[in-house]
Every structure is written in structure tokens, then in C-alpha cells.
Design a protein that fits this description.
Order of helices and strands of chain B: HHHHEEHHHHHHHHHH
Mean pLDDT of chain A: 79
Shape of chain B: globular
CATH topology of the largest domain in chain A: Alpha-Beta Plaits
Low-confidence stretches of chain B: none
Number of domains of chain B: 2
Structural class of chain A: alpha+beta
Number of strands of chain B: 2
Largest interface: A-B, 15 and 12 residues
Largest sheet of chain A: 3 strands, antiparallel
Number of helices of chain A: 7
Radius of gyration of chain B: 24 Å
Shape of chain A: extended
Radius of gyration of chain A: 27 Å
Helix content of chain B: 55-70%
Strand content of chain A: 5-15%
Largest sheet of chain B: 2 strands, antiparallel
Low-confidence stretches of chain A: 168-172
Strand order of the largest sheet of chain B: 1-2
Mean pLDDT of chain B: 84
Oligomer: heterodimer
Distance between the termini of chain A: 82 Å
Number of strands of chain A: 5
Number of domains of chain A: 2
């Protein structure tokens, strides 16, 4: 190939083929790539289903934080109206997002599953004091949903499974934990589907995981594409997927056409009645 | 004066105010259309090249990013205009105009449509139809070299100077091959006027010079013109990895923008020239619709030109940049002899008809001798190479030192 004098013509073929290949780019601010199930974003402080706060002010999160971004002060629960079910509660809870590296060690450390991370990472501030989120901003609302603050860019799915965060599928390498729910169901969210682990018993549809070679199949080398997705067979397969995607659109269009036809008929009837 | 204007039927009845108005309108339309087309070309190139690289390309300004060029241009106008300390101020400011003006002027001779009639005036749809038409294009591409050359020299900086020296050497080298392919076209059309060249090709694609001249001159012309435009793969003048930005390194603001403008305008102009010389210009099938004789030629011309703009972009996407010695090899050792041989063939066939085929063995023998000579020359020069080619380099310390008797 190297020594053929006209081998550069292959470049023309390749570049021309690329015209029809799907783009890998997402037009970012308009639409976004689906986030991975374990994306680390802005924290939330969870509540129990009766509305009690989970945080007991133990400061383990602050202690484990490698970036020193968490500041917690605990206080004894007032006996007549306790804030948390334990002895103490988090009186002050602040996270400085100019320091936070979203390592999730605080989530691992928390004994009551009080602090978890949402998938939101698009929040910007124009001064330093705004970068420090206080307890008021971090705490979930009465429905268990994270507060959507005005400067944050929440999109659909950013708060999914916020409190259903999971540890590694097989803690300490023990296969016994594989496929088991590792984290309790919360206010606002149910139990999250267990992720598969090393043994491959995974339910990608439930957890939302999508392997890269499936997403970008058109860009793989020909021999890496599964036989069922090549040639005529592949074309049929792709058409099926496309049809599924377009089904909603088609249905909407059909409904619109139907409505238009009905209205036209009605107008015609009115006209003929008017004449009669 | 009258002899000079004779080929343009617009001036046949003398020059009065109506003729002047028509000329003015033609110039204005061509100016605006070319500027708009250049903006579109920049958008087109960015969009196509991004498609070929599986990207999206400009999509923020206007629908499908159509106004991206406008946004870029506006930005460039408002940027600070820097004048380097060591620059020759007057020449530095003059150079961008020397690049842009020829690009405009060269387009003037390109026939974009057929001939229309308004009242008693016969109007050719091109800005001007001088008897020397195609020479004007060559002259303008020659003058454009001054823009690049002076820009590099007047910057008072090393990279631009190197870039401009490369550019002028490259453009002058390929101008010979370019000129000779143009001569083959002129030989069969028997005229230098672009209108006459187009008329000679009308009446079906088998009359196009592409077919009549035997395809090869078209390929030579495409290669030569790509080098002439300093577009990829011949864009050594602005090889960013070696020369920062080439001749326009020191330019900023709208002066830089003008070089950019000139480059893309030249691309359009040269696409149009290729269409004129080899693809019959506005020639094409005309359906029997009312008024089709007026607008169909323009549509055909635009289609062909856009196709060539696409091909230039395709070149850029598909081919890696040549090394400088490869560029010169291709120009001097291959393109010039081949165009010369083809010119000889065409000339002898034009004069002697079928007997002209006798020239084929002559050309073959001459070609063989030339290849042999260039190989001999290359072998001989290898002994006294100042810098041996990469891979054959021997460190002086490792070389046996026969002169000192040490082995």
C-alpha cells in the first residue's frame, strides 16, 4: 500500500465516506450527552421519609475531605422538636465549591447516607462568597428533590438517583456483594437498580450505562463491528432503531394531519350547511 | 481604444450613458456577489471540512452558522491594528490591498452566463470581455504574488519573510505549468477571450475542453492552480508547524482579514476559471421553460463552480501537506515536462490534424531522455550533497577518516 503511487487517493475515499457518518459532537448548550449513572456533581443533604434530616453532624465528611472544602458544626438536637433522629444534627453545613474536587469521599464516609451527589456540574458564580453553599441550599426540599437554585443549569435527569448513590459494585473485591443494592431508597427516589460487576451480569438498560463502542459503532474499524450490524443486515438494523426513534415524531405528525383533516372536513360541512 | 473594446458587443454602438449605467450595474453586481460568495465560501469550507472530520462546524451565528463569516469579519474590524516596530509602514499597509485587488479583477473576465439583450444593447453576462481575457487572469495571479511577497518582506520579521520567499518561489514555479495548460486551451479555442473560449465549447459536454484536450491538461491545471492558490496540500506558505502563520504572521485586525478574504476569493475565482477553461463555463442543458436561456446558464455555471469549490475543500481534507522538495520536484520535474509534452501534441494535432500523432513518439523519446537525465543528475548530485537526505545521514565522527590514515 505504502509504495503504490496513487495510494493517496484512499484519502479522498475516506474523507468522502465521512460525510455520511454520524457526528460524534453534541451541540453542548442546546443538548447534552446523557450523564453516567455515577457522575459526581453538586452535593445534596438528604432527609428521611418523615422529613427528618439525615445529617448527625459527626464531621466525618469534613475529616475525610482531601480538599478541605467542607465545614460542619454539630449541635445537640433540641428535645422538643428534633431536627435529626440522632443525638446531634448538622447545625452548620458548608461546602466551598472553589475547592471541592467531587471525589465523593465524603459520600463514602457518611454513616447515615446524609450527603450524596447529584449529577449537576453546571453552576457558576460571580463572586467567592457565592461559591460557598450553605446548609439551606444543600438540603433537599420536602419532596426529597434537590433545590434548583436560579444560577444552576438543571436539565432533565440531573437529579436522577441523587440519593441512590452506590458504592463500588463489589466492595473489597468480594463477589458476594455483586448485584445487590448497596444504598437505601430515599425520600423522592426509590431503590436504585443494582449494577452488574466483574462477572458481567449487568442490566445496562436499568442503570443507564452505555458502552462506548455501542455509541460510536459507526466509527469503529470494519472488523470490529459485529456481523449483524454490517452490510444489508446492518442497514435493516439501523433503520429499525431509527424508526423506533422517529415513532413519537411520526405519531405526532399523524395526529396533526388527522386534526387538520378533521378541521377541514368540519369547515367543509359548515360551508355546505351554510349553502343549504 | 476601439480595437481593445471591439470584442465586447456592448460597446459596438459607441459609448453613451446607457452603456455606462449597464457597465456600472455589472461591476456593482459582480462586486457584491463576489463578496457574498466569499463569505459563503468560508462558511462552506468550514462546514464541509468539519463534515469530513465528523465534526459539526460553525452552527451558532444564524441558521446553520451561515452568518459566521460576518461575525468573524465584524470582530476583525474592531480588533486592534498592530504595526510591528521593524515594519516598513507604507508597504506593510499596501500589501493586503495588493492581495485583494487582483482577486477582484481576475473575476471580471469570467463569463457567468449567456448573452442577454436589453433594448438595443447586447449584454454579455461578465464584467468585461477584453480580447486578452485569460491573460488577465494569469497577470492578476502574478500580481497577487507581490501582495504576499511584500507582506512578508515589509513585516521585518523572519517567519513572514521565509513564508513569502516560499510563496513567491512556489507560485512562480507553477506559473510555468499553469501557463502551458492555458496555452493548450487557447490553441483549440483559437482565442484568448474568455467569452470566445466558452462559445467554442458550447453545444454539449463532448465539446468541452475537458474531453477535447484529453482530460490530462485539466489535471495538470488543477494541480498547478492549487499550488498557485497556495491551498492545501501546497500551503507551505503558511505551514503553521514551521512558519507560525507564514507571510501574514505579523498582520492583525482587518489587514489579516483581507489576506484571508483574498485567499478565499481566489479560490472561487480559480474554480470559475477552471469551469470556464475546461467545463464550458455556463454551457449546459437548457430545458424549454420560459426564460430558461437567461437563467439556466447562470445556474449551470454556479453548480459547476460550487462543485470545484467542494473539490478544493476535499483536497484540504484528504491530502497531507507536501514537503518543499516534493513540491519543487512535482513542479519542475513532472508538471512542466508533462504540460510541455501535451502542449506539443495539441499544437501538432491542431496544425497537422491526424498527422500530428507523429509527435507521440517524439514526445515519448524526449520524455524518456528527460527522466534519464534527471536521474543521472540526481545520482551525481548525491555525491556532493551539502545535506544528505534523512536516513542516509552519517555523523562525521563515525565516517572512516581516510585522509588521516585512520580506519
Amino acid at each position: 500500500m505504502k509504495d503504490q503511487p496513487l495510494s493517496f487517493l484512499g484519502g479522498f475515499k475516506l474523507t468522502f465516506q465521512h460525510l455520511t457518518r454520524p457526528r460524534v459532537t453534541t451541540s453542548y448548550p442546546d443538548d447534552k450527552k446523557p450523564k453516567q449513572p455515577r457522575q459526581h456533581g453538586r452535593h445534596v443533604l438528604n432527609r428521611y421519609e418523615d422529613g427528618m434530616e439525615k445529617c448527625i453532624g459527626c464531621e466525618l465528611c469534613a475529616g475525610v475531605c482531601p480538599a478541605d472544602c467542607i465545614y460542619v458544626r454539630g449541635l445537640d438536637n433540641p428535645p422538643d422538636h428534633p431536627v435529626s433522629p440522632g443525638e446531634r444534627y448538622g447545625y452548620v453545613y458548608e461546602i466551598n465549591y472553589l475547592r471541592c474536587i467531587h471525589c465523593d469521599l465524603c459520600v463514602e464516609a457518611c454513616p447515615t447516607e446524609a450527603i450524596t451527589e447529584s449529577k449537576l456540574f453546571e453552576f457558576s458564580f460571580s463572586n467567592r462568597s457565592d461559591a460557598i453553599y450553605t446548609k439551606n441550599e444543600l438540603l433537599v426540599d420536602d419532596q426529597g428533590m434537590p433545590q434548583k437554585l436560579p444560577w444552576e443549569d438543571w436539565r432533565e435527569g440531573d437529579d436522577m438517583m441523587t440519593s441512590g448513590w452506590m458504592r463500588a459494585t463489589s466492595p473489597s473485591g468480594s463477589a458476594a456483594y455483586e448485584g445487590e443494592v448497596q444504598w437505601a431508597g430515599e425520600l423522592g427516589y426509590g431503590v436504585r437498580a443494582p449494577e452488574g460487576g466483574q462477572s458481567g451480569h449487568r442490566d445496562d438498560a436499568l442503570t443507564g450505562t452505555k458502552p462506548l463502542r455501542e455509541v460510536l459503532e459507526a466509527h469503529l474499524l470494519a472488523e470490529d463491528i459485529p456481523l449483524a450490524h454490517r452490510g444489508m443486515q446492518g442497514r435493516v438494523w439501523r433503520a429499525k432503531i431509527g424508526a423506533e426513534k422517529n415513532k413519537k415524531k411520526m405519531e405526532a405528525t399523524r395526529a396533526r394531519l388527522k386534526a387538520a383533516r378533521a378541521s377541514r372536513k368540519a369547515a367543509k360541512n359548515e360551508k355546505s350547511e351554510g349553502k343549504a | 481604444m476601439t480595437a481593445f473594446l471591439a470584442t465586447d458587443p456592448l460597446f459596438a454602438q459607441g459609448i453613451n450613458w446607457q452603456v455606462l449605467v449597464i457597465v456600472f450595474v455589472k461591476v456593482l453586481v459582480a462586486f457584491v456577489a463576489l463578496l457574498t460568495a466569499t463569505a459563503m465560501m468560508i462558511w462552506f469550507e468550514r462546514k464541509v471540512i468539519s463534515d469530513m472530520q465528523s465534526r459539526i462546524g460553525p452552527n451558532r451565528a444564524g441558521p446553520w452558522g451561515l452568518l459566521q463569516t460576518l461575525a468573524d469579519g465584524t470582530k476583525l474590524v474592531f480588533k486592534e491594528d498592530l504595526l510591528p516596530d521593524h515594519a516598513d509602514s507604507f508597504t506593510f499597509k499596501l500589501a493586503p490591498y495588493l492581495s485583494v485587488l487582483p482577486a477582484f479583477v481576475a473575476f471580471a473576465v469570467v463569463p457567468v452566463g449567456g448573452v442577454i439583450r436589453i433594448g438595443s444593447h447586447i449584454i454579455e453576462l461578465q464584467v468585461a470581455d477584453p480580447p486578452i481575457g485569460i491573460l488577465l487572469v494569469l497577470a492578476m495571479s502574478g500580481i497577487a504574488v507581490y501582495g504576499v511577497m511584500l507582506a512578508g518582506w515589509s513585516s521585518g520579521s523572519k517567519y513572514p519573510l521565509l513564508g513569502s520567499v516560499r510563496a513567491s518561489a512556489q507560485v512562480i514555479s507553477y506559473e510555468a505549468a499553469l501557463g502551458m495548460t492555458v496555452v493548450t486551451v487557447v490553441l483549440v479555442s483559437r482565442s484568448l477571450s474568455t467569452r470566445a473560449i466558452v462559445v467554442a465549447q458550447s453545444g454539449g459536454f463532448w465539446n468541452w475542453n475537458l474531453i477535447r484536450l484529453g482530460f490530462l491538461p485539466f489535471i495538470f491545471f488543477m494541480i498547478a492552480i492549487t499550488a498557485e492558490l497556495t491551498r492545501p496540500p501546497f500551503d507551505l506558505t503558511e505551514a503553521e508547524s514551521e512558519l507560525v502563520g507564514g507571510f501574514h504572521t505579523e498582520y492583525s485586525s482587518i489587514r489579516f482579514g483581507m489576506f484571508y478574504l483574498a485567499e478565499f476569493m481566489n479560490t472561487i475565482t480559480m474554480s470559475a476559471v477552471v469551469v470556464t477553461l475546461f467545463f464550458g463555463g455556463p454551457d449546459g442543458l437548457i430545458p424549454p421553460w420560459p426564460g430558461a436561456t437567461i437563467y439556466m446558464p447562470i445556474i449551470w455555471f454556479l453548480l459547476k463552480t460550487v462543485a470545484f469549490c467542494f473539490i478544493y475543500v476535499w483536497f484540504r481534507a484528504a491530502l497531507p501537506r507536501l514537503r518543499y522538495d516534493q513540491l519543487m520536484d512535482l513542479g519542475w520535474k513532472r508538471l512542466i515536462p508533462m504540460t510541455l509534452a501535451w502542449l506539443l501534441l495539441v499544437a501538432s494535432i491542431v496544425t497537422w490534424h491526424w498527422r500530428g500523432l507523429l509527435m507521440v513518439p517524439v514526445v515519448l523519446v524526449a520524455g524518456f531522455l528527460l527522466v534519464r537525465a534527471s536521474k543521472l543528475g540526481a545520482d551525481r548530485s548525491e555525491e556532493s550533497l551539502v545535506l544528505p537526505p534523512v536516513g542516509r545521514r552519517v555523523t562525521p565522527a563515525l565516517r572512516p577518516r581516510e585522509d588521516q590514515g585512520v580506519t
